[in-house]
Fold this sequence. Notes:
By secondary structure, chain A is mainly α. The radius of gyration of chain A is 23 Å and the shape is globular. Chain A has helices spanning about 10-20, 30-55, 70-80, 80-95, 105-115, 120-125, 150-185, 185-195, 205-235, 250-275, 285-315, 315-330, 330-345, 350-355, 360-385, 400-425, 430-435, and strands at about 5-10, 450. Chain B has about 170 residues and is α+β, with helices and mostly antiparallel strands.
Amino acid sequence: MDVKIHEINFSYGEITKDILRTLEKPRPTYWLMMAMIVAGLGIGVASWMYQIKEGMGVAGLNHPVGWGVYITDFVFWVGIGHAGTLISAILFLFRAKWRNAIFRSAEAMTIFAVLTAALFPLIHVGRVWVAWWLIPYPNQRELWVNFRSPLLWDVFAINTYFSVSAIFFCIGLIPDVAAIRDKAKGMRKKIYTFMSLGFDNSNHQWRHYMAGYGFFAALATPLVLSVHSVVSWDFAVSIVPGWHSTLFAPYFVAGAVFSGMAMVITILIPFRSIFNLEKYLTIWHFDMMSRLIMLTGSIVTYSYLTEYFIAWYSDDVFEIFIFHERVFGKYQIPFLMMFGCNCVVPLLLWSRKLRTNLKVLWVITIFINIGMWFERFNIIVSSLAQEYDPFSWGWYVPSWVEFGVTIGSFCWFFMWFFLFIKFFPSMALTEMKEIADPPVTGDAAHGKEAA
Amino acid sequence: MSNSSVPGVLGIYSHMDTLIDAIHHFKERGRDDIKVHSPCPHHDLDHALDEPVSPVRRFTLLGGLTGCTFGFVFTSFASLDWILPTSGKPVVAPLAFTVVAFELTILFGSLFTLLGIILNAKLFRKRTTLYDDRFTDDKFGIFIPCSKSEYDAMAKELTENGAEEVKHA
Lengths: 451, 169
């Protein structure tokens, strides 16, 4: 198939019918998957409960590595949450038509990824019952938080990102929920009537809705770029060798989009097949997403190389040592996983034949997901384990509790996604109609070429 | 369908070109009070309706300015209220507070935009005009407010202008 040409040649009625079909009674496979997810989530919850009961000692964290798998997971999930808003906001402003079929799933993924990421500061602080002290409010202790700390910037960045992404997502859902309402019966109709907020598809509503949607996109665009920049400053503002770099913000943002797009593809390929949505989610869409991965992957590789160049050029013995240790030291395996999965494997995408083969593409995106997790592990752990003073060096190995929580986090993320696809249209009905030709009299070919 | 309180007639259309012709017809007749339903927004409909720019943008601007101001004032106030010297850094550090102010600009801008949509699009309100469930699927509609005595004449006019079905309260 020539991926340059893609025809969306469907009537409005057909689009409604096909997309609402995903909300029908699930097959046994769905329940089986859900059971596995709940079991994995149980492992995560049990691990966390054990840690709360026994204290942080059961995690592998100890001096000098105070940030380990939990912060790796946190940065990983925040990164995964970047693709959704990028697709829904930035590509909306660029009027990229290929976003219409994928943005809803990607946006949902963003919400659930940030929801997952937000768990990790709570898990990491240990005494989770006092985690609310991070929130600045007038209190009986007469204390305020330190607004000069990047950790507090993170509180604002993550909460703002979650709030704005959630509002953007819910606003986008309103017309589609109205469509479900108009097809539903009984109790479902009552629930969706409440959730559609009285939307009636009238010109009065569309006018304000579309204006507001555009402003949401405009507001979310700098937000996407800022969130991972702020996360990167958690590291870059410190003086730890390997962290103290002005490169970190763009490097983290590119890495976030890179990993987020990979996760979108990892999820959408099976989703497309399970719900028989091949005619809406075409090779063309995956080709476009692959190209974004190629772009951001190249930036990531360039950033890795720049880090090494700057370490050498700085003539700073600590910087040079850390980067030498990453390649040849005790944490060589995470480095090789990072470099292999993020720099070498994605090179396969430069072949059109390979990136339009969905099986190959799916495997490549899984490698990227793994590689991006190891990138964060590599940055965090290798720098902390061997800071300035050799007397305080240490060797960090994650404990089973940390692995349990990590498994639980993946299941938590997928649980929300699986619930979402059964209660809401995971492909935007309204926006799919926007790129189809409207019905006209004597209309022989209802639809149009979208590429 | 019958829970409408505004009297009027609803014409249902299957084709957008017919709908646009009908809109032009009623606009030429000076009927600026018509309400048009469509499964999705469309530029051709916007041109035909020629409505003023939505005031939602003012809400966004107001929200952004409020968030930015609040971000700087709040962080400065809190830092002065509980002085926490760290590494010789200034107590009121505008550069550091810019990050918080930026995030609050976006947050308040978004919340105010949401408020702007809710107030202007009149969400959370009970529908008061005739409606058809197919408007979210594949049909278009024009609702024309009129008194009961005008129903027949208005229904005839809608039919003459391409409406395939006509309903009234």
